[in-house]
């Protein structure tokens, strides 16, 4: 394990923001507002609109938590009287997570395994 811990841990978060009390069946406008917020700080993020929904967000812990805070503030400003968020955050200090492409290599690895499985099933 690395003994030189950074002052600000690199965090990988998945959060699911839920506007409540909007009186609308769609929350797309509110999620778009959060997306606009996430574009500003220069963090790495991906909005998931399929199974599980949520947004994956990577960067220094302080910036990740501030971005989630700012999403709440923006969604309230857009008119949602209540906002709830489920958050899962992971950190690691046993390897340089800032080098490379974040978690994209993990997704590519799973896709490679699935492609191999499909190729051998033919």
What keyword list fits this structure?
122 residues, alpha+beta, Alpha-Beta Plaits, 3 helices
Characterise the protein shown here.
With 122 residues, the protein is an alpha+beta fold. It has a single domain, classed as Alpha-Beta Plaits. The protein has helices at 28-39, 61-77, 104-121, and strands at residues 10-20, 44-47, 55-60, 82-91. Strands 2-3-1-4 form a 4-stranded antiparallel sheet, with helices on one face. Strand 2 and strand 3 form a beta hairpin. The longest helix has 18 residues, at 104-121. The protein is flat, with a radius of gyration of 17 Å. The termini are far apart.
The average pLDDT is 85
Going across the biggest sheet, name each strand in turn. Answer: 2-3-1-4
Integer-rounded radius of gyration: 17 Å
CATH first level: which class? Alpha Beta
Question: How many H/I helical runs?
Answer: 3
How much of the sequence is in beta strands? 25-35%
CATH topology: Alpha-Beta Plaits
Do you know the CATH architecture? Answer: 2-Layer Sandwich
Class computed from helices, strands and strand pairing: alpha+beta
* Uncertain stretches of 5 or more adjacent residues: none
| DSSP summary, beta strand count | 4
SSE pattern? EHEEHEH
End-to-end C-alpha gap: 43 Å
Shape call: flat
- Give the total of domains: 1
Please bin the fraction of helical residues. 25-40%
Largest sheet: 4 strands, antiparallel
Concise structural overview:
The chain is 39% helix and 25% strand. It is α+β, with helices and mostly antiparallel strands and 122 residues long.
